[in-house]
Amino acid sequence: MSKAADETVVNLTTEEVLEEGKKGVHIIDVREQVEIHNTGLIPGAVNIPLGHLEEAMGMSPADFKERYGFEKPSAYDRLIMSCQSGNRSRRATIAMKKLGFTDLSWTVFLAYRIAPLAMF
């Protein structure tokens, strides 16, 4: 990833993500379903695997809501991308920037092992 791509995307701490989630900020976990079933989600997070992200953002709002169960974010909504170790969440923020999203941050799921999780 280039330095320029990182300049406007911030890596958040566990506490920051949990606070943002309480405010209704979208937290999108880009891990695969099997990972989610094994470890759970950050409280308030939803799952859209990285390989499905661009397709999901190209859906109509109605199709998106039917498939994912929540309103499709707009390009101006605040989004926090999450994955196991940070690699996919950083890649997801770059993909979302290319799609026109402007208020993006990322986080690492491993930091949540000591925090309460929403388990399946």
From TrEMBL:
PROSITE patterns: RHODANESE_3. Pfam families: Rhodanese. SUPFAM superfamilies: Rhodanese/Cell cycle control phosphatase. Residues 21-118 form the Rhodanese domain. It comes from the Eukaryota. This is Rhodanese domain-containing protein. PANTHER family: THIOSULFATE SULFURTRANSFERASE RDL2, MITOCHONDRIAL-RELATED, THIOSULFATE SULFURTRANSFERASE_RHODANESE-LIKE DOMAIN-CONTAINING PROTEIN 3. Coiled coil: none annotated.
